[in-house]
Amino acid sequence: MRRSRKTLVMMGVVAVVALAGMAMIDPSVLSFAPQSRSGNLYQEIQRFNEVLHAVSKYYVEEVDNQKLINGAIAGMLETLDPHSVYIPKDQLADVTERFEGHFYGIGIEFNIFNKIPTVVSPMPGTPADRLGLRSADQMIAIEGKSTYGFNEEEVRNRLRGKEGTQVRVTIRRAGVDEPFEVNITREKISINSVEAAFMLDQQTGYVLVVRFAKTTGEELESALQKLERQGMKQLVLDLRGNAGGFLEQAVTVADKFIEHGKKLVYTRGRIAQANDDFYATDDDNHPRFPLIVMLNHGSASASEIVAGAIQDWDRGLVVGETSFGKGLVQSQIGLRDGSAVRITTARYYTPSGRLIQRSYDKSFVDYINDAFDDYDPNAAADSTNDRPTYKTSAGRLVYGGGGITPDVQIKWHRPTQFTVDLIIKRSFFEFASEFAARNRQLAANFQAFQQNWQPSEALLADFRRKIDALKINFDQESWNKDLDYIKLELKSEIALTLWDRQKWYEIKATCNKQMQEVLRFFPQAQKVAAMGEGAGSHLMKN
Question: Residue 30: inside a domain, yes or no?
């Protein structure tokens, strides 16, 4: 990719609360200035030392000074924004682990809020995701032990373990009267970015990118070449639930679809080193096929960079829900003891100049929850009338001020609490396992299963008996509302048991009525791409 001459190396960490970018700064260049615009820094440090001395000398129990300082640093960064964080030395390797290899666990991103581990996002396709864990779920106990006051390392150590073993987690969820327990079987959590790549039909390719890690560009290139060999003429790029990752990998992905010389994203901050511009190159050669990018409320950071660039340059159609709205860049500063801080040093902007970052004036939980509220641009409370407007290369109107607003709004199905309970209590998994054990002959022909097999009335009746056996209160209204979703869950879980994770994804996509709705927008995607073809390399605010 072509970029301006800067020494800043931009990276990022997957997760809504993590980073759109990082830069490494040598701690030896750090120094304290005696004065600041907000007061005398030396006097403030003295005040802090007085408090530390008082606690160390007079507190009723002996205190751990390292723990006190770690807490003070973390608290200081919390006053800035949700993405400036402190990483202790013993956690730094774990933070970067997910971009380099794998681990065995349940597959969630979490943060500590009010001393309680809180789910930020389940990683797509992982045990936590399949059991229906949600953003803002509070993990109040692990194996019966209260997690109140646990640090991230303590939570991580208890959730991870040997493959195939189970961990019992107690969840407190807003809107649910009582906490509930889930038994989650640990699996190998791969670091692969491209989780699935296959043909939806004879001409339509589908690629699911779940994170932007070290090898995302290479993985996507391999997937695109494979699909092109299979006859792909149009592509669905699924970024739903992708919470972000390496900034430069986001640029590499966008570069595969956008013509040479066009700006893909730029960053601006208070210091010169934080300012950078990223441009498309002609390193990869792919046809200018019609493109649809799928987003949901969990699409953040690097996902928004890709979607924003494609939308601004009218390269494809963005479909789904308004994205999370994470547009801050962090710089990583290594400290002398081996720990690090990541501090927001810049904001990133789409090619048209849109800042995607949402307001973070509220609490962390509100910051997360607000992003997952359904957004309706026609509702008075969420009107786009007061949002800054911009124009794409072809003159289409797009919006700034918080997330990427899709060109076509599609609300993805949200199952009722009854169906969520079926997932949490492993009813789909247990039933599918028992069914597959009795019907192994189905494994001989996946294509026939994919195209022709559907849960029969008799099978659904058997599943209802399974629900009764698990002592789950049956809710007829919710059953009727979620019936298509329930049928798809049964079919995909059976596919997972008979075949593998890839087939699970194929059933989820090809047998999904909402995906069929998405495919109907390819003529519109083709028109948008034609509008943007040959556009100049500059965009301006409306």
Answer: no
